[in-house]
Design goal:
mainly beta; 8-stranded antiparallel β-sheet
């Protein structure tokens, strides 16, 4: 691609309205409420990685390539580390996986739209740090495996608002379910296990203006 055809958009107005809800069901209370609560942070982060991968498929060049179908795949990774807060123990998590997606677009002379669906899986683990100075008594550390599957429905609308300006609207709705399994067992010899479910919705809008052919 020649430099004269590279456009750096000088004016960008973007607004994002994300909404995330996470729920968790603990089948074995012996693992403690702190473990269940912290697992929801990881579950929400895993869903966000799929949303980000889907959002990467929505750009100006996608509409200008004039191809109706787009089948894509990508690698996913997520990690986090949180300290003690509100008398809750610190934790860290990490996971890796993959994403597969497909979207179909329709294009007019100065506008276009697309609708797509993406799936993903992630596998990792989470560590809950020991907290010997907990006000209600010492809390033991823990480590548990996590496996998540996710789905994201996404769409976008593109329109040229002038010879050098364009408007891009995008939206998504995602769902993820993470299975958590502790390394320890309860009083009956069963491994502590629970599910964390995450719902995520988002809306974004951006307006771009091309000042010159190269800026």
């Amino acid at each position: 691609m020649k430099l004269s055809r590279i456009s750096l958009w000088s004016l960008t107005l973007a607004g994002c309205l994300p909404a995330v809800r996470a729920e968790s069901w603990n089948q074995f209370p012996e693992s403690g409420p702190e473990t269940t609560l912290d697992s929801m942070w990881a579950s929400a982060a895993y869903v966000q990685t799929l949303v980000d991968a889907s959002s990467a498929q929505i750009n100006i060049s996608r509409f200008r390539q004039k191809g109706p179908s787009n089948l894509w795949a990508g690698a996913l990774g997520s990690f986090g580390d949180a300290g003690i807060r509100n008398n809750q123990p610190s934790f860290d998590y990490s996971a890796a996986g993959y994403a597969l997606g497909y979207d179909y677009g329709t294009y007019g002379e100065k506008s276009g739209s697309l609708l797509g669906l993406a799936f993903g899986q992630m596998f990792g683990h989470q560590n809950i740090q020991e907290m010997p100075d907990y006000p209600d008594g010492p809390l033991e550390g823990d480590r548990f495996r996590q496996s998540a599957w996710m789905a994201n429905l996404y769409g976008a609308f593109f329109r040229e608002t002038g010879p050098r300006s364009s408007l891009l609207l995008a939206a998504n709705a995602a769902f993820g379910s993470t299975e958590n399994k502790c390394r320890h067992s309860d009083a009956w010899g069963n491994a502590s296990r629970w599910d964390s479910e995450t719902f995520q919705m988002g809306l974004s809008a951006s307006w771009r203006y091309q000042v010159t052919n190269s800026f």
